[in-house]
Amino acid sequence: MGFKRALQSIGGAALAGALVLGVSPVAQANDGARAAEWPLKAYGAENNLVWNHSTGKGVVVAVVDSGVRATHVDLTGQVLPGTDVAFGGNGWTDHSPQGHGTGIASLIAGHGHGPNGEDGIMGLAPGAKILPVGVGAGDDTHGNGDLASNVAEGIRYAVDHGAQVINLSLGAYDRDPGEEQAVAYAEQHNVVVVGAAGNENTSNPSYPGSFPGVIKVSAVDQNDNFWPKSDTSGITVAAAGVGIVLDGNGSDTQMVQGDGTSYATAYVSAIAALFRAAYPNLTAGQIVNRIIKTAILPAGRTAPDLDYGYGVASPDFTTNVPAGPAAGPLPQASGAPSDSSSSSSAAPVTTGTNASSGSSGSGMAIGLGAVGGVVLLVVIGVIVARTRRRGGNGGGGGEPAYPTAPHYPNAPQQPYQPPTGQYGGQSQQQPYQQMPNNLYQQQGQQPPRQQ
Asked: Strand 165-168 to strand 192-196: parallel, antiparallel, or no bridges (unpaired)?
């Protein structure tokens, strides 16, 4: 999971050519949450390797989810008026008990809070804006219509209201024609669509992530390890998704921790926003091309890899990547832009230097550290609903550093244990509450198979 060339390897390889960031470096947060955001360190944000190039400013990312708690202190001013096709309103209410949509939004565009924004959750693209699109509460309550139709309507709304990136941290194993048509509509209108792989450890295709043109994201931990509960069908790239601290819905200051492809998807959406801001003349397909060509595979893997796809997505602004065809390297939905609309010569879906030879570094030796002084409400409820599910999950064993989300459909709740190593060992108890899951999946129900 390394960032080679100009970016620090997530696997711990040395960094070359650090640049001076126009934004002040992120200091360790007074409440300790920033120190626990290991993906910011892994992606080089805290070493001034990302935000001097782009913060995502001017880019709108639609979070098609449970709504977003717009009053959360880490998100004030970041959430545009949107919609809730399930319950009505402008999307500023998160209808899931634990705040799934709020958490996703915070990982993308949170700005933190407190003095100099040093407390709370900082997203990877803090200059971006969030367009909230509520499609259901996830607890078998879909409001108006069924969830699939809500998602399809939500995608179209996002496209029609200026979204340049659409985050879909949800999915199912049944292929819905309305969703597929909505995804095609997004691609036809130059929108990057990012979808979660799912957390069932199955090779069954899941949707909307498996629709043509969608970046489908699996999860990895901070030691370069593929998260074993990720689904493995048609993975495009992987991203950070284990031991993730994010905002919750219990109060305007709540933070929780969870594992899963939902959170990995949010980070890839943030990278897409960073690239869209930095390269405004690239089409959505060409942004996808850059994400693929700058992804890094661990040593010994060959792309496309079952677990990692083309590698771990990297906010790499220094690698020279030809724009490629307008449609990008992925299969396209019907009506998506053709290669003839591009001024660039066609390029195959190759992994490039980055993806073809990953770093053999020591892994991300970034511990969660001790986080104290944050008083949080108990997160209650498990989000369930028929065959639909969002992509967050639970972690490994040991005493909880942060309480984590249980696996779905019905795995036991097992809190995440930080790795041993330079910063590792058993960390102190952390006051983050548990992130329930089984999102859009009934407990005990086997995932439906593609017919």
From this structure: parallel
- 233, 262, 314, 359: which one is catalytic? 262
> Does the active-site annotation cover 66?
no
240 and 222 Cβ atoms separated by less than 8 Å: yes
CATH numeric code, 33-356: 3.40.50.200
Confidence band of 179 (pLDDT split at 50, 70, 90): very high
Sheet order of strands, 433-434 included: 244-247, 255-258, 433-434
CA 137 to chain centre: 19
The secondary structure of 213-230 as a DSSP string is T-EEEEEE-TTSPBPTTS
Q: What's the DSSP call for residue 436?
A: -
- Between helix 177-188 and helix 147-160 the angle, nearest 10°, is 10
- Which tens digits make up the pLDDT trace of 185-204? 999 999 999 999 999 999 99
Neighbours of 378 (CB within 10 A): 9
Three-class secondary structure of residue 380 per DSSP: coil
Residue 89 to residue 8: CA distance in whole angstroms: 42
**Neighbouring C-beta atoms of residue 282, cutoff 10 Å:** 21
- Given a cut of 70, is residue 392 above it in pLDDT? no
pLDDT in tens, 414-435: 222 333 222 222 222 233 444 4
Q: What are 93-140's pLDDT values in tens digits?
A: 999 988 999 999 999 999 999 998 899 999 999 999 999 999 997 655
Give the global pTM. Answer: 0.74
Please tell me which residue in 9, 53, 54, 65 is annotated as part of the active site. 65
CB 212 within 8 A of CB 331: yes
**Whole-number Cα distances in Å, 328 to 153, 187, 336, 431:** 25, 11, 10, 44
Nearest to 236 by CA among 178, 190, 297: 297
CB 123 within 8 Å of CB 315? no
* Neighbouring C-alpha atoms within 13 Å toward the C-beta of 249: 23
- The answer to whether the Cα torsion of 280, 286, 288, 290 is positive or negative is negative
Residue 100 is among the residues annotated as catalytic for this protein: yes
**Catalytic position from the list 53, 100, 111, 407:** 100
Residue 401 above 80 pLDDT? no
For the chain, the domains span: 33-356
With residues binned 3-state (H G I as helix, E B as strand, rest as coil), the percentages for the chain, rounded to 5, are 20, 15, 65
Is 113 assigned a catalytic role?
no
Contacts of 185 (CB under 8 A, 6+ apart): 155, 156, 159
Percent pLDDT > 90 in the chain is 61
